[in-house]
Amino acid sequence: MEENTQHPIIILKEQFKGVTDFRKKQGQIFKLHELLAVSVLSFLVGADDFTAMATYCKEKEDFLADFVSFRRNPCHDLFRWIFAHIDPQEFYACFTEWTQIMSKLFPGEVVAFDGKALRATRQADSKTSAIYIVSAWASQNNLSLGQVKVDKKSNEKTAIPKLLKLLDIQGCIVTIDAMGTHPPIAQAIIDKEADYLLALKKTIKTSSLK
Q1: Does the reported pTM lie above 0.85?
Q2: Which of 53, 125, 137, 191 would suit a FRET pair with 111, their CA atoms being 20 to 30 Å apart?
Q3: Helix, coil or strand: residue 197
Q4: Helices 32-44 and 76-85 sit at what angle, rounded to 10 degrees?
Q5: Pick from 133, 140, 130: which is nearest to 175 by CA?
């Protein structure tokens, strides 16, 4: 991936052009890729719902004017409608691409792979396990580069290679806890031209790893 010297917000906006616009062209006031870009910006500074996204646009109107072509500030119902109809996989792909571009602005980035159970995702009267996410976190940039949902913590070892395939981590240092310490994972990191730091729960012979 080539280094991009554009402003990060411009890059973010351009990436979201990859999300299919489900709306009719007639009567459009806002460009979809600009709405998605400002929604991400608002989220990064603490917005946690659609009302907060709309508030961010109003409070940062002068700042955003350098990057978007809004003729008026979008309302919370517009953001709600947009996110109810866009393709989530397309959104995820575009956002992930942006985070990888951002990570390349800082050579030698430490990328931490870790699995977390999402709180309040398991019902007390259900046998279904809580949602478990394996994510890659760019430490210097404070950005999530990507994530993969798994059924349970024991599947972290199979999820990490899938996440590695999605990411451009050339020149980065990958850290993984003991759950992901596995020779094929180490080889996958090497194949991506990155270095790794893997934790062990106890000292064992390398030849005994399986």
Answers
A1: no
A2: 53
A3: strand
A4: 110
A5: 140
